[in-house]
Design a protein that fits this description.
By secondary structure, the protein is α/β, with parallel strands linked by helices. Helix content is 33%, strand content 20%.
Length: 469
């Protein structure tokens, strides 16, 4: 019972949490396998941002429990946000689950699996499913270990040696967990708890270790990364703890690019804006959640900024980096959203000129203040508003990519593309690129001349004079 498969739903934070659990399990002698068909233990790391995400995970777990009827020794666990949100209530729908572990207890997964394993070996079935969704001080510090691609066993899907796995050149680094913002639509404060930041020295040491293992790009992760360390460190010379952290990661030899997500507009003070002008490793790409372009809706959402302040941030960042790329989050159909409110959202969406956006149709999340608001918006209206913004986004993206044709962009070579015939990488603006290259260039920053572009992907040729590609 030592082969584990972890299936992850949701955001990059969940991906990072799953990777940390995998690393803890590997340290205990478990094998992390790529196929769920080959595992003895299957863990679903879940999302609760929208009800559809929870229903998807519940449907998957229900399907897997049919396998448990055929293989009684098969172990199924649900981890993460849905486990935290629903707890033992999940057993009403999924009574044969072995394990339910919340967001502050990921580090206990190996121990709980050992308990299940020992009980099975002794022929003593556990009396009840293991459920742990308790809060734990310092739990944010347990998300620190990595399983990189180069750590994975050199096996094919059939377990035969011989697959050449390219080294991993980018990695997520968790710096902060939890959220104190209390947006009226959001379940995250319930599922992730209050803001908790990791020690800055530990984060820097983790990034330095990743650089020594060949990682060239790090993405700093948190529910509200721009709130990092605000209770634990002092502002120094007008520089916030988050910008201090950026400076220290920037100084690490081997780290060539720095990204972060997700921030809050409130965190974009002058020190962070100016950091884009003086820290060249900080990529010119910002994910800046807008949620709505209507001040009335922003107040209803408990978002502490105005449309005017939001656009000031966009303009200040473009003043520092004229080629800055922007992505955002927008909710359409929030309770009470009028045609005028949506028109203001569309106006700000067009003026901000996003390169990418996550556009969500509002869905009720039980336990949030917005769930009990009246004046819910009909689904067909949400759908129409969603389609309108998607159309604007497509036009923006096509216009931006068209301006890149004929230019030379710096690309970090990540490895083979999905076809295995060409290579892929990303620009500093987070655009995916596809091109011909040599495996020896993986992990290198190379100049790419763009000759073709779609809405989301750039195609080109390496501009390496006298160098074999």
């Amino acid at each position: 019972m030592n082969r584990v498969h972890i299936k992850t739903y949701g955001c990059q934070m969940n991906e990072r949490d799953s990777e940390a659990v995998a690393a803890m399990l590997r340290a205990r002698g478990y094998r992390i396998v790529a196929s769920e068909d080959d595992c003895d233990v299957l863990l679903l790391n879940t999302c609760s941002v929208r009800d559809a995400a929870e229903q998807k995970a519940i449907g998957k777990a229900s399907y897997l429990l049919h396998r448990k009827k055929r293989q009684p020794e098969f172990v199924i666990g649900i981890l993460g946000c849905m486990a935290q949100n629903r707890g033992a209530e999940l057993l009403d729908k999924l009574p044969d689950l072995d394990l339910i572990v919340g967001t502050q207890k990921f580090h206990q997964v190996p121990e709980y699996l050992e308990n299940i394993r020992a009980a099975r070996a002794a022929g003593v079935p556990l009396a009840t499913s293991i459920v742990d969704i308790a809060e734990e001080a310092g739990s944010q510090n347990t998300i620190r270990d990595h399983v990189l691609a180069q750590d994975v066993e050199n096996l094919t899907a059939d377990g035969v040696e011989g697959v050449d796995i390219p080294p991993q050149v980018s990695a997520f680094v968790s710096i902060q967990q939890g959220c104190n913002m209390d947006c009226s639509f959001c379940i995250v404060p319930k599922t992730r708890g209050d803001e908790r930041s990791r020690p800055m020295d530990d984060i820097v040491a983790e990034c330095r270790s990743l650089a020594a293992r060949g990682v060239r790009e790090v993405t700093l992760l948190g529910q509200i990364v721009t709130s990092y360390g605000r209770r634990d460190y002092t502002h120094t010379g007008g520089i916030s703890p988050f910008v201090q952290l950026l400076e220290r990661v920037h100084a690490i030899d081997g780290i060539e690019r720095i990204r972060f997500t997700s921030p809050h507009p409130r965190g974009f003070k002058q020190d962070l804006v100016e950091a884009y002008g003086r820290l060249p490793k900080l990529c010119g790409y910002v994910h800046l959640p807008m949620q709505s372009g209507s001040n009335r809706m922003l107040r209803a959402m408990n978002r502490p900024y105005t449309r005017e302040r939001y656009f000031e941030i966009v303009e200040s960042l473009r003043a520092v980096r004229p080629d800055m790329y922007f992505s955002t989050d927008v909710i359409v159909g929030f309770p009470g959203e009028t045609e005028e409110d949506f028109a203001e959202t569309r106006d700000l969406f067009e003026r901000a000129d996003y390169d990418m956006a996550y556009i969500f149709k509002y869905s009720i999340r039980t336990g949030t203040p917005a769930a009990i608001l009246g004046d819910q918006i009909p689904d067909e209206v949400k759908e129409a508003r969603n389609a309108t913004l998607l159309g604007v986004l497509q036009q923006n993206s096509l216009r931006r990519t068209a301006t890149l044709i004929g230019t030379v962009e710096e690309v970090l070579v990540e490895g083979p593309d999905k076809t295995g015939r060409r290579f892929t990488g990303r620009t500093r603006g987070n655009r995916v690129c596809v091109f011909d290259a040599s495996p020896r260039l993986i992990g290198q920053l190379v100049p790419l001349k763009i000759d073709r572009a779609t809405v989301s992907t750039l195609y080109g040729e390496l501009a390496l004079s006298g160098v074999e590609v």
